[in-house]
Design brief:
- The complex is a heterodimer of chains A (575) and B (112).
- With 575 residues, chain A is mainly alpha-helical.
- Chain A folds into two domains: 460 residues, Up-down Bundle (Sodium/glucose cotransporter); 48 residues, no CATH class.
- In chain A, 67% of the residues lie in helices and 5% in strands.
- Chain B is elongated, with a radius of gyration of 22 Å.
- Chain B is mostly helical.
- Chain B has one domain.
- In chain B, strands 1-2 form a two-stranded antiparallel sheet.
- In chain B, helix 2 packs antiparallel against helix 4.
- In chain B, strand 1 and strand 2 form a beta hairpin.
- Chain B has four helices and two strands.
- The chains are: A mainly alpha (575), B mainly alpha (112).
- At the A-B interface, helix 5, helix 11, helix 13 and helix 22 of A face helix 1, helix 2 and helix 4 of B.
């Protein structure tokens, strides 16, 4: 795609986001309270907004990239993202709404009556938020680079500036409208090009997506390497490198940015060393993906995704923008429908990418498959327009998820860390928003590029190992105490975070250690449960004094007029 | 959640003691029991369904047509099953949970 089209797509998405945000602010200002305003939002709009917020870079780009490289096993990502919502609905959503807590730290404080538990929860919200923001920014860098050739830092900076403008301008008030728009943009941006891609594939006589053997270039292929990459050459290949004939011997080779490699038809595809090569046979079959212990890795991933959703800071607050529990349930059903429709598409892109853009296996930029496929298969103006559409959809994904996360993290930062140091709450929130973006941008620019969906999976693992036990035990087990909760959060959240840090900084390890570190949820989540229960049983003298009252509140109808005290979690956003 | 308009005056705001009594009441126990009896087995069942469908590799690997194998069809089926379970839960909540919850509310607020 040419640079002007790509830039136009990014600018249009950013403009639409800011403009709809401003319109949302105007609409919301006619009522005195944001939450009254949001209750006039119908379940259908609300569901669109939830979908818009939830479908991040991982869903829009990452899943397709993983499917391209590793095949059917990766379909667990979309299934898990969807099923996680079901877990949230059945086990947590209604009691949490009734608790009156808007954020996870609020819940920890209300249920355990402890500021230590609150602080621990705050730290974890910030950790998970940053971990989730990191891949959004890296994806923005990848996208802007792919479509315009801009340097890697440009994407994160553009996203951060737009998010900062819309969050500081409108705060929570405008976000429902923006995110509902962004869901439909994302769906259109994947669906319309997908129809064209399918037409081309059918027109080609429906070639097999993956031939059984190792991947080869079916036709003479010219690959331009845009970022330095180390590739593993499986067997001797004669290529043309920058116009000079060259024989690549088996083994690792470093290819520097700017190199153009011309492969003859039938040449095996050297894979970037960050990818595990797969034959077409194993690509199409489950439980054959890279790594030493695929069954463990798959189970652990499923656990992380199913139980992590309930602990994502930006997801929970959405359940408040419904008039009552009944509407909240209707909303969830609509959300699952919207997510299900969307998630059929990334797998399609990944599968077609295996056939039509196999050179991504060489450059290692498999996450770019959604961006490059349309222009590859559709020529001329139509291809340009489709590329523009997917670029716009990708930016909608970065912007919507980043806005939601930034608001959540900024709220926690301003209330729990800056509180007392900054007198004005609005200034505190703005400062919080700035900090919420600064750290993940720094990380995105300095840390190595990992698969987008992989890093998001790690954020889910931390959430599943910390907030899932806190919520489930807090809601269903009377005897949970604050020392137990803090110890469990520390053990599960700490262990999973440590595993994540080792994986990100140290790269993939081999054997059982590698499997346990790369997919920690299967052991860190039980660890958190065990520690929470054991320490609680040993510290029964610290049972919250109002636990009976809290339990009734959590489990009785929410249209009951409850004495929620004079503490109002919305204070922080009020001007 | 409570409506933000001023509540009608006859609605009493329950005291702490009434909460304590409610916590011990059979209605409250029944509400929690009904919820648990549905939610916990359902959660266990659908987790088992997901985990087992990963485990049965040989079965999942059977080809249906071209690159389409049983596992792929199950993957699509999982979206459908997630939707179905959610619908079942919502029906359960509307039919079995909401009436008793309303009853508790009426008792608690009519207490004075």
């Amino acid at each position: 795609m040419s640079s002007p089209t790509g830039i136009a797509a990014v600018v249009l998405t950013a403009l639409a986001t800011v403009l709809i945000g401003m319109y949302g602010v105007r609409a919301a200002r006619t009522t005195s309270d944001f939450y009254v305003a949001s209750r006039t939002v119908t379940p259908w709009w609300n569901a669109s907004a939830i979908g818009g917020e939830y479908l991040s870079a991982a869903s829009f780009l990452g899943v397709a990239g993983l499917v391209l490289a590793y095949g059917t096993d990766m379909l667990w990502f979309p299934v898990g993202y969807t099923a996680g919502y079901l877990m949230l609905l059945v086990l947590v959503a209604a009691p949490l709404r009734r608790s009156g807590a808007y954020t996870l730290p609020d819940f920890a404080e209300a249920r355990l009556e402890s500021s230590a538990a609150r602080r621990m929860a705050s730290i974890l919200v910030v950790t998970i938020g940053w971990l989730y923001l990191l891949p959004q920014f890296q994806a923005a860098g990848l996208t802007l680079r792919t479509v315009t050739g801009a340097p890697q830092w440009a994407g994160p900076v553009v996203v951060a500036v737009v998010v900062l403008v819309s969050v500081l301008g409108g705060g929570m008030r405008s976000i429902t409208f923006v995110q509902a728009f962004q869901y439909w943009l994302k769906l259109t941006a994947l669906l319309v090009p997908a129809l064209f891609l399918l037409l081309v594939w059918v027109g080609d006589g429906r070639p097999e997506l993956a031939t059984p053997g190792s991947p080869v270039f079916e036709e003479p292929t010219s690959v331009e390497v845009t970022i330095d990459v180390t590739v593993d050459v499986p067997s001797q290949i004669s290529v043309v490198a920058d116009g000079e004939p060259l024989v690549l011997e088996p083994g690792p080779h470093e290819v520097s940015a700017g190199t153009v490699l011309d492969f003859p038809a039938g040449a095996p595809i050297p894979h970037a060393s960050s990818l595990t090569p797969m034959t077409g046979e194993s690509w199409a079959l489950p439980l054959t993906a890279g790594g030493d212990h695929p069954l463990y890795a798959t189970y652990s991933l499923i656990i992380a995704l199913f139980f992590g959703t309930m602990g994502l800071p930006h997801v929970l607050v959405r359940f408040y923008t419904n008039p009552d529990g009944r509407a909240a349930r209707r909303t969830t059903l609509a959300v699952l429908g919207l997510l299900g429709v969307f998630y059929v598409l990334p797998g399609l892109y990944g599968a077609l990418g295996r056939l039509y853009t196999p050179e991504l296996l060489l450059t290692g930029r498999t996450d770019a498959v959604v961006l490059v496929l349309p222009a590859r298969l559709v020529d001329g103006v139509a291809g340009e327009a489709l590329s523009m559409l997917v670029t716009a959809g990708a930016f909608a994904a970065f912007l919507s998820t980043s806005s939601g996360l930034t608001v959540s993290v900024a709220g926690v930062l301003s209330q729990d860390l800056l509180h007392g140091r900054v007198r004005n709450p609005v200034t505190g929130f703005r400062l919080g928003a700035f900090l919420a973006l600064l750290v993940p941008i720094g990380l995105a620019l300095t840390s190595p590029f990992l698969g987008i969906a992989d890093v998001v999976g790690l954020a889910f693992a931390v959430a599943a190992s910390s907030f899932c036990p806190l919520l489930l035990l807090g809601i269903w087990w009377r005897r949970l105490t604050w020392p137990g909760a803090v110890a469990g959060l520390l053990a599960g959240g700490g262990a999973s975070t440590a595993a994540v840090v080792v994986t990100i900084l140290g790269g993939p390890q081999s054997g059982w250690v590698g499997a346990l570190l790369a997919q920690p949820a299967a052991w860190t989540m039980p660890l958190a449960f065990v520690v929470m229960i054991a320490v609680s049983l040993g510290t029964q003298q610290h049972l919250a004094p109002g636990v009976n009252r809290t339990m009734v509140r959590l489990h009785t109808p929410e249209n009951l007029d409850l004495n929620r005290g004079d503490w109002d979690p919305e204070d922080r956003w009020r001007t | 959640m409570a409506s933000l308009e001023t509540p009608p005056p006859e609605r009493a705001i329950p005291t702490a003691e009434e909460y304590e009594r409610m916590q011990a009441s059979p209605e409250f126990a029944e509400l929690r029991k009904r919820f648990r009896n549905f939610a916990f087995p359902m959660t266990a069942a659908f987790l088992a369904w997901y985990l087992l469908s990963t485990y049965a590799v040989d079965f999942m690997s059977q080809r249906v047509a071209g690159n389409i194998n049983v596992g792929l069809l199950f993957g699509l089926g999982q979206f459908a099953s997630t939707f179905l379970i959610t619908w079942l839960y919502i029906r359960h909540a509307d039919r079995n949970l909401d009436p008793i919850a309303t009853q508790i509310r009426d008792e608690l607020e009519g207490a004075r």
